[in-house]
Request: fold
Amino acid sequence: MESSINSRIGNEANTEQDIEISRENLDAVMDGMKGVTSEVGGTAYSVFRNFNIEVGGKTGTAQKGEKDTPNALFVGFAPYDNPEIAVVCVIENGGNSSIASYPARDVIAQYFGMNEQNIEENTRRFAKC
Reply:
């Protein structure tokens, strides 16, 4: 499966040997990213709690100045156990970090064909704007 993904994006696969990180540290990071989306209290839990695919992710904010609203950030990948897609979302002046999880979830859903039954409904909703 990995070779087909890499051929679709025109990239050669990286291996763990290319990354200098201990298995213990990598597992800790991965577990934390899983908790962000799948554990009560995770900053993107409310966004992904009923999602059909397990996602790893990290929310964050980037301060721009004392009086400016911070940018909202989300980086994630899916499926958690065998990633096919990685998504990064930055919303300028988004404020709350979890707000960037919503468009990332929509991109992941679209990638896996989860939006097909909702196309007509979404089209009508946006047509009213």
